[in-house]
Amino acid sequence: PGADRESIEVYGSHIGLGHNPAVLVVVADRLAQPEGRWAPFSPPTGLSALFPRPSRAA
Fold it and tell me: Is 40 within 8 Å of 29 (Cβ atoms)?
């Protein structure tokens, strides 16, 4: 754990994560960040329904 890490929850099963649209949005968002400029994930406008509210246990 550290300041530049986070857990991002998505709806779905483990086996379905490879083709889950929410997972693809997260991966694309994380890869698009400039190196050395980490920022927490924020769902794109209109897609927030794909992501559950973060749990406090993360």
Answer: no
Q: How far is residue 5's CA from residue 41's CA, in Å, rounded to a whole number?
A: 10
CA distance 25 to 20: 9
Residue among 21, 40, 22 nearest 30 (CA) = 40
Question: Is 6 in contact with 41 (CB distance < 8 Å)?
Answer: yes
Q: Would you kindly state where each structural domain of the chain is located, as residue ranges?
A: 1-58
Q: What is the DSSP string of 20-36?
A: -HHHHHHHHHHHTSPTT
Q: What are the tens digits of pLDDT across the range 11-37?
A: 999 999 999 999 999 999 999 999 999
Q: Smallest Cα–Cα separation from 25: which of 6, 42, 2, 37?
A: 42
